[in-house]
Amino acid sequence: MLHRIYAIYIARNREFLRDRGTLAWNLALPLVLMIGLSLAFSGDGRDQFTVGVLQETANLDIEQHPFLETRFINFVAFTDENIAFRKIERHQLDLLVRFDGQRRYWINPDSPKAYFAERLLLHADTTNGGNIEKAQISGDAIRYVDWVLPGILGMNMMFSCLFGVGYVVVRYRKNGFLKRLRATPLRPIEFIIAQLASRLSLIILITAVIYTGTHLFLDTRMEGSYFALLLIAILGAASMVSLGLMVAARVSSEELAGGLLNLITWPMMLLSGVWFSLEGASPLVQNAAQIFPLTHILDSSRAVMLDGASLIDIAPNLAALALMTAVFLGIGATFFRWNQD
Question: What's the pLDDT score for residue 92?
Answer without folding.
Answer: 75
